[in-house]
TrEMBL record:
Name listed for the protein in its UniProt record: Mannitol dehydrogenase rossman domain
Protein source organism: Kineococcus radiotolerans (strain ATCC BAA-149 / DSM 14245 / SRS30216)
Coiled-coil parts of chain: none
Keyword Oxidoreductase tagged: yes
Catalytic activities: D-mannitol 1-phosphate + NAD(+) = beta-D-fructose 6-phosphate + NADH + H(+)
Length: 432
């Protein structure tokens, strides 16, 4: 898929518009069967575009989209600003911004206007799919709130109350598709909704647990606001009571998203983290500037190859092609270098290093990235054994690995000499 939603760019002032074939039907006649609950702007980069393609290709006219902006009262100025924007998609790969209108959006409302209207659209028999994008802060807030509390008007509170109305009316439940940029987002949403339901109506919780589907999804890469980058939308094919023909509009339907989450974490997120570390050491300020340095580009190529070796087969993904795409994406995005702190390194670099050590795989580029990170920590010097002992709490059992101690010392020597590419990653693998 090669189009994305732009929710930050001032669309009315864009210089170029690209005409496209007329879509089937009329916006007003399109059946609104999808409700999106979103926080903090129109987070529609993936499913809005995919549903637009369903309509544009005349695959179905039964999946119109209603966007519900979850905002508290008192933000009407921001709401009006959103309503004045044209609903269009930005096309990547052009010298100047180009946009196409999204024809699938049938209605826009906000919880600041009328919470009853939000519940009505969720409880409507025509609604078969609810997509969800909420911040972690509001997920937690909603989980802790009682149904009568104003905080329950956020996403999970709406879902529980709407599902209760549907059950009481003898209607089938809608499917809840999470689009939050967190691992296991479908399971996390299910757990939160069930916990909230159990606090008010255990029988409702049983019904939700038995009959409601909570597929997960992910966008690769995760899209920043206003991005026009190509992306893959990976969706778990676990829907009740029908779904749009998403696979015919560019989505990847899978049984589980976990392998794809690992792919993104180890390669895309890991590469961004490593680039932030090594690129900063090289004096670069942006990703493009860093990868224009042959030393950094060679390092990142080796890092990606080593990180990929820790992955099992990911169905439908060409790993060499994916690695090349990650390099091209980072080299072509003139973005500030990521700030790669301890939390990021622990989440997306150390797991790859742990697997490489456990399975005796090449890992010198992984070790070098860790060496750069350790040098940024307070009190770090040039001795590997001392650094590992000082930062044992961050490294865990990695700090006790004798192989890592020796390899980290080698990496520190290379860094002192201004070298970022230890050796080709096709060196012979060691044996246990």
């Amino acid at each position: 898929m090669s189009t994305t939603w732009s929710d930050e760019t001032p669309l009315r002032s864009t210089p170029t518009e690209t005409p496209e074939p007329a879509v089937a039907g009329d916006r007003g006649l399109r059946t609104p069967a999808v409700v999106h609950l979103g926080v903090g702007g129109l987070r529609l980069a993936h499913h809005a575009v995919c549903l637009h393609e369903v309509v544009r290709r005349r695959l179905s006219d039964d999946w119109g989209l209603v966007h519900v902006e979850l905002r508290p009262p008192g933000e009407d100025g921001l709401i009006r600003l959103d309503r004045e924007r044209d609903h269009r998609v930005q096309l990547p790969g052009t010298s100047s911004p180009e946009f196409r209108e999204v024809e699938v959006l049938t209605e826009f409302t906000t919880s600041a206007d009328d919470s009853a209207a939000v519940l009505d659209v969720l409880a409507d028999p025509a609604t078969r799919l609810v997509t969800l994008r909420v911040s972690e802060e509001q997920e937690f807030f909603g989980l802790c709130a009682a149904p009568e509390h104003p905080a329950a008007r956020i996403a999970h509170g709406y879902l529980v109350r709407a599902l209760a109305r549907r059950r009481d009316a003898g209607l089938p439940p809608f499917t809840v598709l999470s689009c939050d940029p967190v691992p296991r987002n479908g399971a996390r949403t299910r757990d939160a909704v069930l916990e909230l339901a159990r606090r008010t109506d255990p029988l409702l919780a049983d019904w939700i647990g038995r009959d409601v589907r909570f597929p997960g999804s992910l966008v690769d890469p995760t899209l920043p606001g206003g991005s026009a980058l190509p992306f893959r939308w990976v969706v778990e094919d676990d829907f009740g009571h029908g779904r749009p023909p998403l696979e015919e509009a560019g989505a990847h339907l899978v049984t589980h998203t976990a392998p794809h989450e690992q792919l993104r974490m180890h390669l895309l997120d890991g590469a961004r983290c490593a680039l932030g570390l090594v690129g900063g050491t090289a004096g670069a300020r942006t990703t493009a500037e860093a990868l224009a340095d042959p030393r950094v580009r060679a390092f990142l190529g080796g890092f990606l190859e080593e990180a990929a070796s820790s992955l099992l087969h990911v169905p439908g993904v060409d790993l060499p092609g994916y690695r090349a795409a990650v390099l091209a994406r980072l080299a072509g995005a003139d973005e500030p270098l990521p700030r790669s702190g301890s939390a990021a390194v622990s989440a997306v670099v150390l797991p790859s290093l742990r697997q490489a050590l456990d399975h005796y795989r090449p890992r010198r580029h992984l070790v070098l990235a860790v060496a750069v990170w350790l040098l940024t920590l307070p009190g770090s010097g040039g001795d590997a054994r001392t650094m590992l002992r000082q930062h044992h709490a961050l490294l865990g059992t990695l700090a006790d690995d004798p192989h890592l101690t020796a390899e980290l010392q080698e990496a520190l020597v290379l860094l002192a000499a201004g070298t970022f590419d230890p050796r080709p990653t096709d060196a012979p693998e060691e044996t246990p």
